[in-house]
Model the fold of this input.
Amino acid sequence: MKLRILLFISLIFFIKLNAQIGFEDYTIIDESHAVWGIKSIYVIDLDGDGDLDLIFGSSNVGINKIGWYENLGEGQFSDLKIIDNEAEDITDVYADDIDGDGDIDVLSASQGDNKIRWYENSNGEGEFGTENIINIDASEVQSIHASDMDGDGDLDVISASSYHNISWYENLDGEGNFSSEKVIHSIPSNSVYSGDIDGDGDMDVVSTSYQTISWYENLDNHGNFGSEQVINENLEGFAIEIYLTDINNDGNLDVVSASKSDRTIAWYENINGLGDFGDQQIISTSQFDTESVHTNDIDGDGDMDVISSSSSNFSRIYWHENVDGLGNFSTSDEIDTNNSGPQLVFTGDIDNDDDIDIVSAAVEGNDIIWLPNTDGLGSFSTRKNIHLYTRDPKGIEANDLDADGDIDIVVVSSYDDKVSWFESIDGEGSFSSQYIISNEIDAPIQVQSVDIDNDSDLDLVVSSERGKIYWIENIDGQANFGSVNYISNFSESFDIADIDGDGDIDLLTSDPIGRIWWIENLDGLGSFGERQDIPGNGLGGVHSADIDSDGDIDFIASGRNNSNGFVYWYENLDGQGNFDTEKIIATENNSFSSNFPADIDGDGDIDVIVGNYEIAWYENLDGLGNFGPKNYVSSALTGPFPIIAKDLDNDGDIDIVSASFIDNEIAWFENTNGLGEFQYQYPPISNNVDQVDFVSAADINNDGRIDLLSASRGDDKVAWYENLGSLGNSIHGYVRLDSDLNGCDNKDLPVSNALIITNNGTEDFATFTNSNGNYNINVNEGVFTTSISSSLPNYFISNPLVHTSSFVGLGSSDIADFCVEPDQTINDLTISLYSLDGARPGFSSHYQITYQNKGTTIMSGNIEIEFDSPSLEFLNSSIPISSQTANSLTFNYSNIEPFEIKTFDIEFSVNTPPVVEIGDILFFSATINPLNNDINEANNFFSYNQTVIDSFDPNDIQVLEGEEIYLEEADDYLHYIIRFQNTGTASAINVRVKNDLDPNLDWNTMQLENVSHANRVEIVDGNHVEFIFDNINLPDENTNEPESHGYIQYKIKPKSTVDVGDSILNQADIYFDFNPPITTNTVSTTIIENLSVSDNSMESVSVYPVPSTGSVYVNSHTKIVKLQIYNELGQLVMEKENNQGVKEIEIHKLTSGVYTIKLIDESYNKTIKKLIKK
Done:
């Protein structure tokens, strides 16, 4: 069930009949699927389903991934599945049963952090746990292997390091707990392998070191190795890879090697089975810069052949046949050529047809492919993709390709030359993994689906950046596609239509310089004739339509001619493709980048929409192609392209959809009266796209509403946007507190921030009550049940529990009031302290205190603020002070109602150096009294440690709890403040702040503390939060600096499932009007068990439990040697000192109340904590 939350604060709300519709975006594939710089591959059955999966390790520009692709059967692979993305500069991966539980685990080596790790396959189906470290000091480790080195029946690990050692690590218990490093030989090495070289029943080791190949005898089957035995120390090239296999079928393990620069692939015969090796025997020296080598029986003749790859700019894969089973090899057989650069190779039966296929991956790119062995004899077909990804998607099409009644998606991506499709799994918007149709078209950019060959299924027409156009046949109507059929060159933009009225589909095309042709489908079977020239210019694209209402296909074209932009239409004079010269629709000084034909004004003829620096439309006045003047639509988008027209709001008229490559936005414009008066709809469909190139429309989820799709190259994303329909009905009401238990009326207190949820059985909508207790929820048609959510404290009862509303059609509203009754007397006060700007030496610093009554009774008392003196000097506050000391302030409050939130501000002056230096920590605490009888005394106290800075970004996010919290603190709130400032040169009319919550945050616990300006908040799917400040009119800093700022304060709890090591990230995107977003810094809070800060840090010292009745404990990485406890009057009441460290102090003799603890470490660093004695 999808949850959509709309929070309204100080918002005046109204509904019109043609109400705004909503959209929700779903990513089909994006850059998160990308894998670049593959350093190692391994093929094995990872999930125990009987077919071979692929494991890889990749590292590129700081992005590191260890992952795998599941073989779904017959060589069709799943999406990327990540195992780890923390290993740095990965060099090798390997897989075997490390913990002896019968499934396949994964090993990795990474030279960036000098670690060897393994990952447990926790369920045998490819679900992996966190890393298990084998070695954290394997300097520049290059290669790993697993074998039973000590004869105890479990797998140990061998490694080679280019820095110093060949080593092994004993699996101590067979469950993956390893010993420290055991050095076999202290020599730089880049490849290692193991096997029984001397036939004595134990595992020996072979390795390469620069220009030397050597082996090491396992002397006693316990991992005690002999000295180096050189196989060849005179290689002319740098040895890069080595294998042990029986090349000549004599039962002994021979050595196969590959070396760079000398282009040599060779083998060495184990002459007597005892490890005495013969001279180098050349397999090949013909390939340039060998990159990788693997061995297997490629042709099924019972002997081991060799596969290799070269690392030239146009990488090649070869196989070398062992022609007689004795190690005599044929000349190299080139089986694949591509432009992906250096390649890795591996072998295995990928499609389960009992022969050996080849797997390859690009070292410097993102290609991971396999080559099917078509006959089991070494004849290979074209490459098939394993890595599923679209690089630079340019075109998208939605249609039912497999004739199963739902909408599938076709995508063309120019960088990787792919035409691919995604099958609709359930007809509701869930899509399969990517299926590759073709990668033979160079830089495809546009695709349309249509029945080219009149066999009643949907074929594809594709154009490319290279000016060529093709069609691909849907062979069986089930989306099994044939080969690519060339149609013509000099074609880039195209449209499809029956130009000559003979009942088949022809093509209308324009080339990159604007020339226009049409191409006839000669026989209705996809045999196309020569281009037929149409005088004109179509640089901005061509679209076919019956402009003059005579029943044949005309077309429109737009672009630039000399110095003027133009929009023309061309009449099909005889319905057979003989076109008249251009007829002017419009000319302007600016080039028209896009056009689209549609009946905008509902009069039954075709009007024309155009885009350049703005969107406009031209009315077809008489249905004969005589066009009126320009009708302005909008200039909200910069350079709108492309443009399409559909009835998005189901009101019977045509709306406009457009996208901006520059603004990174997809927007729609409502045809408000059906006659062509348009209104830009805010918020847009999406501004979560980067360099969007194309939009399309279709009913993706079969709900009767037109959804949208997009392809954007900046984030390599293909997405669809669900049309949620017109939210044209309203459920509204109030929530009040029946404190006198006689029923709710206007005299009762409003309940603010109560979460109200309504659902119609399939979708949920929700909102929070405002400060007056009122709420309003927009819904669509159906029967809705509305209630206060479970976030209402359990000492209140809702009356009624639920309310039912039924809507048929739009424009209706229903009232659902709720009366909240307390069933017990509860005191519960909370307090927080936020910094409104940075603390800088010599400047003033501003803070806000936020406090709330969460109980059932009216409360009065005082608030105590303690601060770091003499680092800070109090200047003023927004409410009067009741008392003051050198380091404390006391404020009185009275009559705070249940559910009420209040705030006040304090200003301090930050002292100058040397008293306050950059990097110093300022200590604050806030306590709200009374504590007695408070149900939760812990939230009556708040502490804040602020780092002194030299400057700050006015658009930022801060988490008050800092970079680390203890696991026992994970049930408490994290407090966030998002600060923004208009640093432009004019007032910002609207401001939006987008804040996607980390998956480890529980959105159900989110509470707004305070917001600087009237706004509304929308939360979608529980993690997409947007604060919307409509008509804020925020002045720029040059006009009114103090008023140019705004902020958002909220608190939220981590999920109950967080554990030690989890990190919670948070950042925000801030939009001022239609400007690109300002992305804030990213804050991170990590869950820790023990302190992971430097020895001299006091930032994360913890005192617990709070509150306490007996002993109090100190948790600190640095040694606390002195502890002092002060009462509320600032008097020292207890002190403990121990040079060996203070870990515990007994406080049972102290009277109940709030105390301050000063902790001092052995370097005389200090910190202050708050203690509550019950």
Observations:
- The two ends are 45 Å apart (CA to CA).
